[in-house]
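To close the section, here is one more complete example, presented without commentary so you can practise reading it yourself. The ligand is DLL.
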Amino acid sequence: MTSYWDAHHETMSRDQLAEIQTKRLKTLVERVYTSVPFYRQAFQEKGITPGDIKSLEDLKSLPFTTKKDLRDTYPFGLFAVPRSEIVRMHASSGTTGKPIVVGYTKKDLDTWSDLVARCFSMAGGTKEDVVQNAYGYGLFTGGLGIHYGAERLGATIVPISGGNTARQIMLMQDFQTSILTCTPSYALYLADEIHAAGVDLGTLHLKVGIFGAEPWSNNMRRQLEEKLGIRAHDIYGLSEVLGPGVAMECPCQNGLHVFEDHFIPEIIDPVTEQPLPYGEKGELVFTTLTKEGFPVIRYRTKDISTLYPEVCECGRTHLRMERITGRTDDMLIIRGVNVFPSQIESVLLEFGETEPHYLLVVDRKASLDDLEIQVELSANMFSDKIAGLEVLERRLRERILSVLGISAKIKLVEPKSLPRSEGKAKRVIDRREL
Ligand code: DLL
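Output:
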């Protein structure tokens, strides 16, 4: 079952869509050129002025934006409005110490709520639904992004945030939750706990799951649908572009519709940086058409996908993107938290008691992601007493938790015991099967 939140924009002809996109792109280019020094300089380096952008074809002449650019302009350098116009900020992991900061104006929040309401409608949600939102609330865009979208829909939102599984199950029963929103791995964990607690699925009112923020597979979808008796939809987004609500899967479960009246997606070859035709796999790139606070031009997501232009059976004309099949960098998503090996490395190096030789082993145990950090002791620590090593392990664990927001098991190993590589160091063993 699907319904349109905004039938006009979701089903308009591709010609009409192109007309809107062109108009919005021209305005965007003008706006960032005048209000963001970073973009003005990037345009000038390419010898482009806003007047050169006349059609969608011209998009490919614009410069890319990367995570590094966001880092270099930390915290507010890419904001396109005065800070006083920003009414909310969110943040996401950067590759090193500092996070990526994004800002929203009042109008941005309004657009965001509307787009998330679109997602709910697409999955069959209405004001009759009770939405249990187990995405984390805070700087992460998942909690609040989904929250205000559900309110915009008019549904009843239960802002429970992540964790506290026993309470999740109790409220799910008592409040007759019909839509569950969380990461797919947490949904799987919840499902297993529901079964372990002997809860009869027939007593639950769940009908839909809206899962995203990390990669998952069709295989995992089937498991979730079976274990929870729901239809599971994939939702995609990233802080730099909006948060949840950039693209959403309709009931055809045949790719995610990218909301093209607000974002222009491209697929590029990550090496040559050339745009690839529809149907070819590559790196997803987004240009935001309507964002005021933090617009981005050709943002390189490092997510790998494919775009399909055929009109969907649900009647929507917006391009479909294949579910994310991987990344071009080494970013891991552990229990919904984005983690770069380089961030862990910099914490390990802060201590000086370990060597910069480490291995991250990621596994999924009882449906939950598990991270073990194996790190070599420095030679002088190796001779230290067990008690000293236990203290070091604990300090490392606490530091990782406070800097990255994830709990990890620390395993101190003998100097020179981890495998060395002659080429690119292999820092990660990911044993999770999605
Ligand atoms: O994860 C936004 C979000 C919240 C999306 C809730 C969906 C639901 P970030 O923390 O900035 O934002 O992480 C963005 O997460 O570049 C992808 O690598 C990954 N990701 C997000 N959604 C999906 C998905 C939120 N459906 C990064 N499938 C992105 C696979 C996803 N990966």
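Once you have examined the tokens, check your reading against these statements. The longest helix spans residues 14-35. The longest strand covers residues 354-365.
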